[in-house]
Amino acid sequence: MDLKKAHLYLYTFCRYFLATMIISYAFAKIFETQFTSQPSIYDKPIGSLSGFQLTWYYYGYSYWYGLVIATTQIISSILLFFRKTTRIGIILFLTFMVNILLMDFAYDIQGAKGMALTLTLMALFVLLSDYKALFKYFVQEPPLFQDSDRPIRMNKMSKIKFIYIPLVFIGFFVLISTLKNKYMGKNEFYGTWENVETAERLHFEAANTFQINKKNELENFANGKYTFTKDSLALLNATKTAPEKTEKYLKGKYKLTGNNLIIMTQNSTLKFKRIR
């Protein structure tokens, strides 16, 4: 068996198959048969949506963004149809195809995983079939500006990168982790609590903020900051006229046991159960 000829036939088949299939996905975005959510989706709480429903709604929110993806797919398709432009075409193809593959598995998009995996593997086959040329271009080719093109001082200073790069990683690691602990830290209250009598929902959120929603209503009627000590809790509501100012909304003793929260004020006792 002539392996080189077999490689040629398989390579050509993969090019044309990838170029043909991706056109169908591009037109599906243009004519909105993809990324289109059904009317019933809009009445469902976001927490009840499946990965497929959530992904379709998110990407379908902006029609022009879908057009950008479709345009990229069409360009890669045209490039793949011609041997001379296959290299750039397959690189462009993989930039979105790998993301689609990861998204299909991460968000459990049933019915799409098999095709996404097939297209990605075929694209990798096309890419790696030309690995010598790609390796030469991306690795062996000299940089745009060589040492002889740069001032001597710049060549000497380039060694600083071996100090700068670790500092960047360490610096941002410390910065982001510090900001997370300060503004996104989760305490024992964090989450959604439902009043067992009125079904009002009390949301304890990041940065010690809260929101309260009445049953079956999306807009909150109270929001602001909360403070707590070992046994007392205070909700400070942001005023409508001056959001930066707060007024006491609720204050009392609390008892937190597992998924049950009891807040005892001077006038009443409020009982909540954790929803999430």
From TrEMBL:
It comes from the Bacteria. This is DoxX family protein. The chain crosses the membrane at residues 7-28, 63-82, 89-107, 119-139, 160-179. Keywords: Membrane, Transmembrane, Transmembrane helix.
